[in-house]
TrEMBL record:
Residues 106-154 form the Squalene cyclase C-terminal domain. The keyword Lipid biosynthesis does not apply. InterPro entries: SQ_cyclase_C, Terpenoid_cyclase/PrenylTrfase. The keyword Transmembrane applies. Keywords: Membrane, Metal-binding, Signal, Transmembrane, Transmembrane helix. Pfam families: SQHop_cyclase_C. Residues 236-272, 362-405 are annotated as: Disordered. This is Squalene cyclase C-terminal domain-containing protein. Residues 255-265 have a biased composition (Basic and acidic residues).
Length: 437
């Protein structure tokens, strides 16, 4: 879904970046903003390929558990924003300003929006980013990993999550062809004309012939988006145990009279329910985890996708499935974060643990929050679990500025006047192009 990046794929795609970046509109990257220094960066790895992503996930995860990040961390993320509001997946030198050849990234921008909106006090930066996202919406209502690239389920879903984070109704964010983000997602869900075991799943993108293949990563992303949720969801309650309902199909061939016999969900919530049912079925058959589809690694677990699935199932109130999958992660988390200092892995585990109603400070005996805090600048405040719970219950915003969401609710009205960036298609996204589970 959203919670990690593939540095190998990003590195392999850099060759395409150099050749194609000249096609980017200079308007989209004019008067670039200054970049931050590395003092506030989370993690020790080179931020060239994943800095914005891992920074956003780390900051967001800290915020959900009552940690007020160090100011240097927020400064670093803000420093990566280009003048038009976009963020880039790839920066040859993250310390340099954006330029005409800086490739804007939809996923990175949407993740940064969610983090900055949650932290508060960054309404101008958030406003610019959301306006930019609106300005590069595809005609089908969706987004691809770069402006102008074909819509994919992951990019559409994380933008819906960004809108949700600022209180914007994605169903009213329409393209020039009057399509919404949910329209774009609907075209990527396998319906009643698909094999029974694949119904309800989402494809990342259609293949060259327009066919859809189930993709667990895309399915988890779309399951969240259909519920109008972002990376942070409310924790499961103990009585949230309802199993997801599969896609309802009638007729001898599994279809119905609508949509040429293809059938399918009519509302985003129904699509999310069917997606959750597909995920739950795959997880049950595979010892409560998802496997990698990366060539050469098909027999290896995909920990990030598994964490994504936990969040998606928790968002739908499917406690039994979410907790069983989280239990698998607790047993195998050390295999994922072997360095014990990967902020993206730790952040996604914090988000998944919290979503499933568990305690991130006692994740199979490990304090994920403490380990995450150690990967970045010293936090300004670390709330106790009791303080965090009380703040959540009372709706206390921990002293953050209140101008963010109220301001962002209105700026979409002027977003259409901003210049749209011309697109280039290369794999510098948080999402690899995948087919299969």
């Amino acid at each position: 879904m959203y919670l990690r990046r593939s540095a190998a794929v990003l590195a392999a795609s850099t060759v395409l970046c150099t050749a194609a970046a000249a096609a980017v509109s200079p308007v989209a990257f004019a008067a670039p903003a200054a970049a931050g220094d590395d003092d506030g960066l989370y993690g020790k790895g080179d931020p060239k390929y994943d800095g914005v992503w891992r920074q956003s996930v780390a900051l967001l995860a800290q915020d959900t558990v009552g940690v007020t990040p160090g100011a240097e961390g927020e400064k670093w993320l803000l420093g990566q924003q280009c003048a038009d509001g976009s963020f880039a997946a790839y920066r040859a030198d993250p310390g340099e300003k954006c330029g005409k050849q800086t490739p804007a990234d939809i996923n990175a921008t949407a993740a940064a929006v969610q983090a900055l909106a949650a932290l508060g006090g960054h309404s101008k930066a958030v406003e610019k980013s959301v306006s930019w996202l609106e300005s590069v919406q595809n005609e089908d209502g969706g987004w691809g990993y770069n402006p102008g690239s074909p819509s994919d389920a992951n990019s559409v879903s994380i933008v819906i999550g960004a809108f949700a984070a600022v209180g914007q109704d994605a169903s009213k964010t329409v393209s020039e062809k009057d399509n919404t983000p949910f329209d774009a997602l609907a075209g990527l869900q396998l319906r009643c004309d698909a094999k029974a075991a694949e119904r309800g799943a989402f494809a990342y993108q259609p293949d060259k012939k327009g066919a859809l293949a189930p993709n667990a990563d895309a399915t988890a992303a779309a399951a969240l988006a259909g519920l109008d949720e972002g990376l942070v969801v409310e924790p499961l309650e103990k009585d949230d145990e309802e199993s997801p309902e599969p896609l309802k199909c009638g007729g001898n061939d599994g279809g119905d009279d609508k949509d040429g016999g293809k059938g399918g969900a009519e509302e985003p919530e129904d699509a999310a329910e069917a997606a959750a049912a597909y995920l739950a079925d795959v997880l049950e058959k595979n010892d409560h985890h998802l496997d990698s589809v990366t060539p050469g690694a098909e027999d290896q677990p995909d920990y990030g996708n598994t964490a994504d699935a936990v969040i998606a199932l928790a968002a739908g109130g499917h406690g039994d499935e979410a907790r069983a999958t989280l239990g698998w992660l607790e047993k195998h988390a050390a295999d994922w974060d072997k360095s014990k200092a990967d902020p993206a892995a730790l952040g996604s585990l914090v988000l998944a643990s919290r979503a499933a109603g568990a305690d991130p400070r006692d994740f199979g005996g490990t304090d994920l929050v403490k380990r995450l805090n150690a990967t970045g600048p010293t936090p300004r405040k670390v709330a106790t679990p009791e303080e965090t719970a009380a703040a959540t219950k009372e709706g206390d915003d921990d002293g953050k500025d209140d101008d963010d969401n109220s301001t962002v609710l209105t700026f979409s009205l002027i977003g259409a006047g901003l210049a749209a960036g011309a697109g280039i298609g290369f794999l510098l996204s948080s999402r690899r192009k995948r087919q299969g589970l």
